[in-house]
Amino acid sequence: MDRRYETLLSRRLSTSRESAIVSGPRNVGKSTSACAGSTRHDILNWDQQEDRRLLLAGATAVAKHLSSGTPADFTRHLVLREIHKHRGWRELFADIRDACGEHVRSTVTASAAISIGAGSEDSLPEHCLNLRMHPLSVAELTNTRIDVRGPSRPAKILREGFAQLEKFGGFPESYLKSSARFSNRWRKNRWEQLFREDLRDLTQIQEIGQVEVLGELLAEQVAELLNYSLLANKVSTSVDTIRRWVETLESMFFCFTVRPWSKSVPKSLLKQPKAYLWDWSGISDRTTRRENFVASHLLKAVHWWTDVGLGTFELCYLRDKAKRGVDFVVIRDGKPWFLVAIESSKREIGSSLSYYHRILEPAHAFQLSFDLDFIDRDCFLDNDPVRVPAETLLSQLV
Questions:
Q1: What is the pLDDT of residues 294-325, one digit of tens each?
Q2: 331-352: b or e for each residue (b if 16 or more CB lie within 10 Å)?
Q3: Domains of the chain, start order
Q4: Closest Cα to residue 391, out of 152, 161, 157?
Q5: Is the whole model's pTM more than 0.85, yes or no?
Q6: pLDDT tens digits for 266-302?
């Protein structure tokens, strides 16, 4: 299956010595996309003992390994998997780039946000494309072309494919199998790997069992406002510890939080975020799963648009003390760009969507309907609040 990430990485690595760092959840296809399009690639995996010994031997040993039997002017692609687990990975990565020379392109793939590795800092190496990889989406299934200008033209997805994506999630293996039995096993294995292996390897947290309980609670409270005090009571720890653990689970791509947007919103909620899962397939309630489905599509879009340099994008929600709310607002360079309200039983434009459109003056306001059939019309041509089919709007994202 072709991914638009493959095209972007291949283009960047073939035209410059710029390295790439691709982060994202396990099983999302990072290494596959990193290797696609290269005539010759080598993979060194920190989780494999033999590869780890070579990496610990230093940059000169790695360069010698890569040059063995290869013409001096032959460009190779080195993929370094999970190297962020090494305390000194930044220095090692820079040394490998210098030692290997201009005929080696290098990519780091990481199943956790780079900044949570042992002894890590927030800064990334210079001259790197930092790309956050997401599961499959409606837009990627209908169009793998790169569009770095923003929303693309609508593209129709088969109803069966849309339902398959909603039910089995966007992780390639689970989506392609489309089997309830396989999906159940796959989710169980992913959960155990994250909470039993990755949490132990990447953090200094000792209370693994309590963090696993927190993960279960977050999965049960998708799309709800996070109550840190209540979670702390249920997990038997402090509020500050719960906040740190939630941040850790975000960094490991288990969940993501969406905070309220408060600028220019009278009597807005200021702090409480809502939590969503990277894998929406295990959410049993259909309404909640669909909200997570939309949240994941929007997060993928704001990450992509930010990573390719279109600006600084953020995903938030709107709610005030009068309980007027809109599910999502996409912020572009510090200003609301478009609103998305998921339609309930009502068919007319919701009063909250109209209210926030009036006071915030975003360019667009969409009432997203899962009941409307696909329409081949650009949703971003409308400036007033408008009902749009979910299949149409989501196909215009990333």
A1: 999 999 999 999 999 999 999 999 999 999 99
A2: bbeeebbbbbbbbeeeeebbeb
A3: 4-133 (3.40.50.300), 139-395 (no CATH)
A4: 157
A5: yes
A6: 888 778 999 999 999 999 999 999 999 999 999 999 9
